[in-house]
């Protein structure tokens, strides 16, 4: 596949209202699919938002509800779904976990956020994952990280070295760090010569305002798409051949000095 149609679901998330958020996501995914897309992407913690003091009660046990809902949507709508992330309970521990579903409704991958964000007290309530997020979508090697993971260039480099052509970033990234959000995505795209596709939420939780600005950056660092601060479904088509042509033009992966660093 050379071209991939992606629908970014930049949604608001009701604080702690899992049922309402599931209904809302369901409707948005159906709308996205009706316009034609290969892949739908949701934001971080889209079922609960950062309702961390209640996260043990709200978390999805072994991801069962998410798996049932997303698998049914993916197969009936014939789309891939990168289901943002959800609070995922396993052996009494809660993780911030992304799940990927293919067109047949099979769950093909999962990834739990490696870096917990202390500014939003994640480390007090959540457990960090222990494996990177290498994934395949329609046979294309890709990768996913989650939000704060974007600040750790070594992780994305490792994923690029493993062959990823697209980096997905489900997020709940708030004001006042829009400048960091934009700059880090462009940097990850340029330094790894890969697409970066992000899906950030909008709306408020208390004093925290989430700005959206979901983005698609190409492997040359050009911003192909940047959303505003409103809820919406954004359709972007990317040409995957660009990854190889940029990597040929400036062969940074061949020029790395692995003897030095
Ligand atoms: N949900 C998050 O990980 C937020 C990360 C963030 O806001 C940052 O500045 O980093």
Automatic annotation (TrEMBL):
Keyword Lipid metabolism attributed: no
Coiled-coil region: none
Alphabetical list of CDD domains matching this protein: nitrilase_5 (cd07583)
Domain of life according to the entry: Bacteria
Family annotation (InterPro entries): C-N_Hydrolase, C-N_Hydrolase_sf
Keywords for the protein's UniProt record, in alphabetical order: Hydrolase
Entry keyword annotation includes Magnesium: no
A GO molecular-function annotation: hydrolase activity
Domain CN hydrolase, chain residue ranges per copy: 4-240
Family as reported in the entry's similarity comment: Belongs to the carbon-nitrogen hydrolase superfamily. NIT1/NIT2 family.
Name this polypeptide is given: Carbon-nitrogen family hydrolase
């Amino acid at each position: 596949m050379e071209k991939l149609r992606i629908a970014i679901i930049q949604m608001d998330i009701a604080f702690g209202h899992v049922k309402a958020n599931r209904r809302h996501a369901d409707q948005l995914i159906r709308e996205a699919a009706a316009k034609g897309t290969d892949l739908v992407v949701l934001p971080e913690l889209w079922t609960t938002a950062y309702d961390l003091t209640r996260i043990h009660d709200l978390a999805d046990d072994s991801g069962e509800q998410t798996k049932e809902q997303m698998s049914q949507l993916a197969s009936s709508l014939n789309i891939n779904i990168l289901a943002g992330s959800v609070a995922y309970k396993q052996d009494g521990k809660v993780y911030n976990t992304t799940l990927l579903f293919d067109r047949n409704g099979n769950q093909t991958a999962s990834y739990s956020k490696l870096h917990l964000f202390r500014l939003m007290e994640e480390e007090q309530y959540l457990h960090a994952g222990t494996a990177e997020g290498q994934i395949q979508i329609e046979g294309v090697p890709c990768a996913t990280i989650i939000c704060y993971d974007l600040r750790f260039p070594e992780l994305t480099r490792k994923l690029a070295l493993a062959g990823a052509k697209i980096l997905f970033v489900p997020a709940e990234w708030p004001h006042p760090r829009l400048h960091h959000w934009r700059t880090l995505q462009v940097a990850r795209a340029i330094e790894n010569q890969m697409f970066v596709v992000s899906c950030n939420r909008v709306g408020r939780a208390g004093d925290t305002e989430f700005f959206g600005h979901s983005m698609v950056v190409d492997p040359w660092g050009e911003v192909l798409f940047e959303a505003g601060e409103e809820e919406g479904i954004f359709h972007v088509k990317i040409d995957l051949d660009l990854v190889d042509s940029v990597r040929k033009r400036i062969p940074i992966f061949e020029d790395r000095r692995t003897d030095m660093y």
